[in-house]
Amino acid sequence: MLALALAITGAQVMLGLAMMCAAYRMTAGPRAQDRVLGLDTFFTNSMLLLITFGIQTGRTLYFESALTIALLGFVGTVALSKFLMRGEVIE
Amino acid sequence: MIQAPDLPLWWSLIVGLLVLAGAGMTLVGSVGLLRLHTFFDRVHAPTLGSSLGAVLIVLASIVCFSVLRTRLSIHEVLIVLLITCTTPVAFMLLARSALYRARAERSAKTSETTDAEPSDLPPGSGDSDLAR
Description:
Strand content of chain A: under 5%
Order of helices and strands of chain A: HHH
Number of domains of chain B: 1
Largest sheet of chain A: none
Number of helices of chain B: 5
Low-confidence stretches of chain A: none
Mean pLDDT of chain B: 83
Shape of chain B: elongated
Number of strands of chain B: 0
Number of strands of chain A: 0
Largest sheet of chain B: none
Mean pLDDT of chain A: 90
Shape of chain A: elongated
Helix content of chain B: 55-70%
Number of helices of chain A: 3
Oligomer: heterodimer
Number of domains of chain A: 1
Radius of gyration of chain B: 21 Å
CATH architecture of chain A: Orthogonal Bundle
């Protein structure tokens, strides 16, 4: 089972690199919409990383946290893009 | 941290390949987010990770848990449904707000020729005025 362990660990390293790219775009993006895009990508990558943790340990606890993170990422992106459009979230 | 579930050989190969392909797709999408030049190019790139990367990794999770428990476990399909429904909506709202802001800036300073992404403007200055 060493091959599967190495594959899952390699996938986690690749997802960590993807999260670093998204974090760079979130901190150093030239405009505000680039930062929001980086935040949404960061949420998606962290959700995929949690699913790979769930495969690695064989527990279903990570599935529920991944679902919660996906939902929170959508709500955060919609609220931030509404704020960029109108200047306020709730009208 | 090197740890893996106890699967038979062929199923472990399938799960490993699916996980590696999904993570590679997500990494390609995030590198595209890092390296493309304008915002409207960049908004295409992370959808690679949130469509094909999510589908492949969730498929690996479905195969792994179905083989481990010797029954069909497809509750991960919920994540794919949520992601494929919410990502286009969120990115379309974001692209429309970016287009609105670019048009507002272009109409605000018509005297000089501006790009869609003025890099000399610091991102904190005047954004609250342009957003309204």
